[in-house]
Design a protein that fits this description.
There is one protein chain. The chain has a single domain, classed as Jelly Rolls. It is 0% helix and 46% strand. The chain is built from no helices and twelve strands. The strands form three sheets. A six-stranded antiparallel beta sheet has the order 1-2-3-10-5-8, with no helix packed on it. Strand 6 and strand 7 form a beta hairpin. It is globular.
Length: 123
């Protein structure tokens, strides 16, 4: 059993959001990673795909996700399931907070980049 206490060392900040790592292999989990995403209103992440299914549960605010040419709004209390390898772009319609879960071995691919990116908060 592991009890994880977040710390500033678990936070990764990008130009669009802050990700706070929760469960991950580096913190005791063997199969899953979970993290919190905080994105300010008006921010939009890059188009990308993830090699593993992700489950996002919004705990505050709302987001818009565009995937496969369709845009869907997700609001507080709703859960979004994004399939593996589906291109997506996340936009903060308003400031939001979400908890995300996926298998710990997922990587991100961004169009135009040769190598996939590791998610440091999920390792």
């Amino acid at each position: 059993m592991y009890v994880i206490t977040t710390s500033p060392d678990h936070v990764t900040t990008t130009p669009n959001a802050a990700m706070t790592g929760l469960a991950a292999p580096s913190r005791g989990s063997s199969e899953l990673s979970t993290w919190q995403v905080d994105m300010p209103a008006g921010a939009t992440g890059p188009e990308h795909s993830v090699s593993r299914e992700q489950v996002w549960t919004l705990t505050a605010g709302s987001l818009e996700v565009t995937s496969d040419g369709r845009t869907q709004k997700v609001t507080t209390g709703q859960t979004l399931v994004l399939p593996a390898d589906a291109p997506r772009r996340i936009h903060a319609a308003e400031t939001f907070r979400a908890h995300v879960a996926m298998r710990a071995d997922g990587v991100v691919s961004v169009p135009g980049e040769e190598e996939p990116r590791v998610l440091p908060w999920a390792r």
